[in-house]
Every structure is written in structure tokens, then in C-alpha cells.
Specification:
Largest sheet: 8 strands, mixed
Radius of gyration: 25 Å
Strand content: 15-25%
Number of strands: 12
Order of helices and strands: HHHEEHEHHEHEEEEHEHEEEH
Shape: elongated
Number of helices: 10
Length: 308
């Protein structure tokens, strides 16, 4: 039975517990914490005594959380996260110019857009730090909801998610990319239906660009024949350049260049676009430094950003 004794759970005990839980190893946790292994073991033992439960089970040289230990880990991480945010808010209140912004984004926006906006912001606020986190659409939503990031660029913008809020900051066109030897490679624009007999190189399942391309092909009257799948725009561009098929990619994927570059052709019919949104948790006020960055981004996309 869980019991709470007369003492108090200490912050240091929570920190040690979380580190051991993450690494599943007392010695490795001690090395990360820069303390003696005996100190970590002692604090974990005192925490278990205080709670009246076993948090870990021995598994060879490693340790494994008990079921109640897994439950306690979620609470402990939330407590430490709240404390970190409280300390950060105090520092930002005293001087928002020295805060930290945790920003999430998909890989396709990390090639040009994110470096561009961060560099522009840092010219005005040089001491603000950034922590970046890349991910696919579902993981970015989860990172925002779980408070792993403060803001996230995401595409497409999630219209019906009550846990996040934000705005569409830009809408960009998708272009057809073809091998340079393709008969349509030198045309200024094409109808997407002209590619109905081609083999397509697409992003894999879970990537937001895949359904956009798929739906556009269906609107053009055909189902794309998939020959290859990739996880990064550079891979897809390279496969197309090597003659493995054709594809559709957004404007921002064209900024990166390499020795293997395909031909880029506009699509006149149907119009194929994707939205890029900026989201944050709907239930939480943004820290001051994040509010400043958010306002900067809205102004940037309204007045300064230029597409291809």
C-alpha cells in the first residue's frame, strides 16, 4: 500500500529518479549527473522509503521501472518540467532577451525557412537561445501538446485539433520535378494529368506531403503509380534526377542544391498547394520571449517573406 511518511520528497530525489528511469542504469545516471553512484542509489532508496513502494526492478546490470514507477515517472517529469518553466519565466520577466525558445518543425522547413527566420530574429535579439526539434506531423502535434516545444511549424495546418491553436503563416505551391531528360522537362508549366503514366517517387506513409500529392493526382483523374518512397526531400530529388520517376515537391524543397538536381516545372492544373501553420498549446499562455518571437514571425510572414 502506498504511504506517505513524515518527511518530504526532495527535488534532488526526483531528478535522480528521472535520470535513472531514462537511462535504466544507475551507474550511467550517476555519470550524467556528475555524482557518485552511491549517492544516486542512496537517494533512490530514500525516495522508495518515503513513498513506501518499489520504483525499480533489477534486470541484470540494468534496472526497469515497476508499473507504479512508470506512473510516478510521468508525474515526476511533469513536476520538473513545470519547475524549469517557472525558473525560465522568472528569468524572462527580469530580461526576456536571455530566454530560450523551443521550436519544432518538419525536415522540409529546416532546409531554408527555419534558418532564415531564426537568423533574422537573432539580429534583433542576439542573446535568445533556441532548442530545435524535428519531426513528422503526428509527432509535432504531440510535442506541442506535451509541452516538449513552445511553438511548431507544421504542414498542413491542423484545422480541427482543440489541443493546439495558431494560424496559417503561408501557403506555398508544389512543383513537378522531372528527370532533366524527360520530354516535359523544358516546359514552363504542365497539367498534372500529363504525368498519369509516370512512375512516382513519394514520401512514405506518415509524411504530410504524401496525401497532398495523392489527392492532387486523384483530382487530375489518375492514381499515381509508386515506384520508390523516401523520407527526405533530398532523397526524392536525387531519385528523380537519376531517372527513377517523377514527383511533386514544395517550393522550399528547391532551395537546397546538389550535383543531382531534377528539372522543376510549374503545375497549371490543378493548383497544388500546402499550408504551413504556426501552432502552440491552446490551454497555456506563451512565455514572454516566445510571445516576442511569435509576434516577430507573424510580422515576418506578412511583410518580409518571399517565396520563389
Amino acid at each position: 500500500m502506498l504511504r506517505r511518511r513524515g518527511g518530504r520528497v526532495e527535488l534532488r530525489q526526483l531528478e535522480y529518479f528521472v535520470q535513472v528511469a531514462r537511462l535504466q542504469h544507475v551507474t550511467k545516471a550517476a555519470e550524467e549527473l556528475h555524482v557518485a553512484q552511491s549517492a544516486v542509489s542512496r537517494q533512490i532508496h530514500r525516495l522508495e522509503e518515503e513513498l513506501g513502494i518499489r520504483l525499480f526492478m533489477q534486470r541484470g546490470r540494468n534496472v526497469q521501472l515497476t508499473p507504479v514507477g512508470q506512473l510516478f515517472l510521468r508525474r515526476a517529469e511533469a513536476i520538473l518540467g513545470d519547475l524549469d518553466r517557472a525558473v525560465m519565466e522568472i528569468h524572462e520577466f527580469l530580461d526576456p532577451e536571455v530566454g530560450e525558445i523551443r521550436l519544432g518543425f518538419p525536415h522540409s522547413l529546416g532546409i531554408h525557412l527555419v534558418p532564415q527566420v531564426v537568423a533574422a530574429f537573432r539580429k534583433i535579439h542576439p542573446n535568445v537561445k533556441f532548442r530545435f526539434r524535428q519531426g513528422m506531423y503526428p509527432s509535432l502535434i504531440r510535442d506541442v501538446v506535451d509541452a516538449e516545444v513552445d511553438l511548431a511549424f507544421i504542414s498542413p495546418y491542423p484545422e480541427n485539433n482543440e489541443q493546439v491553436t495558431g494560424e496559417v503563416v503561408l501557403t506555398e505551391s508544389l512543383f513537378a520535378i522531372l528527370p532533366t531528360s524527360h520530354p516535359l522537362a523544358n516546359k514552363e508549366s504542365i497539367n498534372l494529368s500529363e504525368l498519369k503514366d509516370e512512375t512516382f517517387v513519394l514520401f512514405g506513409n506518415g509524411y504530410s506531403l504524401r496525401p497532398i500529392v495523392w489527392d492532387a493526382c486523384k483530382e487530375a483523374g489518375f492514381t499515381p503509380k509508386i515506384g520508390f518512397e523516401g523520407e527526405e526531400s533530398g532523397t526524392i530529388r536525387g531519385l528523380v534526377a537519376a531517372g527513377m520517376g517523377v514527383s511533386l515537391l514544395p517550393e522550399m524543397a528547391m532551395y537546397e542544391t546538389s550535383s543531382m538536381m531534377p528539372a522543376v516545372v510549374k503545375i497549371s492544373e490543378p493548383q497544388v498547394t500546402r499550408t504551413v501553420g504556426l501552432i502552440h498549446r491552446s490551454s497555456e499562455k506563451l512565455p514572454l520571449v516566445v510571445q516576442i518571437f511569435h509576434s516577430f514571425l507573424i510580422d515576418f510572414f506578412n511583410n518580409e517573406y518571399r517565396s520563389l
